[in-house]
Design goal:
CATH class of the domain at 70-173: Mainly Beta
Radius of gyration: 45 Å
CATH architecture of the domain at 70-173: Roll
Strand order of the largest sheet: 4-5-6-7
Order of helices and strands: HHEEEEEEE
Oligomer: single chain
CATH topology of the domain at 70-173: SH3 type barrels
Helix content: 25-40%
Largest sheet: 4 strands, antiparallel
Shape: elongated
């Protein structure tokens, strides 16, 4: 006589139930597919007509552009109102224009007997040059506008963030 254990009996019963359950679903799916095949092809509905949308015309030509920041508009207005600044490329360069302003050192102010004021500027090679109002220093077309006992004030012509030339006041301060 065959002696089956409890585990074997439970496993056998589960297998039978699973196979029986799957068989019902498979036969239902096969029957549904046979029904669809027997009906034949069906006509496809035409797509719906697209909605007619009128073209939008932007009529706010004189108004401010909503995609440009207010600060940029104001800066553009200021630029349009101020005369454009350009360096004089035809001007003969002075000896102290070979150096960056950071390489030059202001050493002091001298007043000549006729009242003319001179500034003393030292170059990296330790040479001291005398300069006066109207001379140029540095690589940014810096023109001397004032000489005091503690600094030389320059107006440089530099490019701003929009690649436009602007004037910028820069001091060359004495280290003492």
């Amino acid at each position: 006589m065959i002696n089956f254990s409890l585990k074997t009996n439970v496993g056998l019963m589960l297998s039978i139930f699973l196979v029986t359950g799957c068989t019902d679903r498979i036969s239902l799916a096969e029957a549904e597919m046979a029904k669809i095949r027997s009906e034949g092809p069906q006509a496809i509905e035409p797509p719906p007509e697209p909605l007619k949308i009128e073209d939008f015309v932007y009529a706010a030509q004189g108004e401010s552009d909503p995609f440009v920041a207010k600060s940029l508009r104001e800066r553009q207005q200021v630029r349009e109102q101020t005369p454009s600044v350009k360096p004089d490329e035809n001007r003969v360069k002075e000896p102290l224009e070979e150096f960056e302003l950071s390489q030059l050192t202001y050493r002091g102010k001298v007043v000549a007997p006729n009242g003319q004021e001179y500034g003393l500027v030292q170059t990296p090679d330790m040479m001291v040059h005398d300069v006066q109002v109207g001379n140029y220093l540095g690589k940014n077309h810096g023109r001397i506008v004032e000489i005091t006992s503690t600094q030389i004030n320059l107006i440089e012509i530099v490019k701003d963030t929009d690649e436009q030339y602007v004037e910028k006041t820069t001091p060359l301060v004495s280290p003492n």
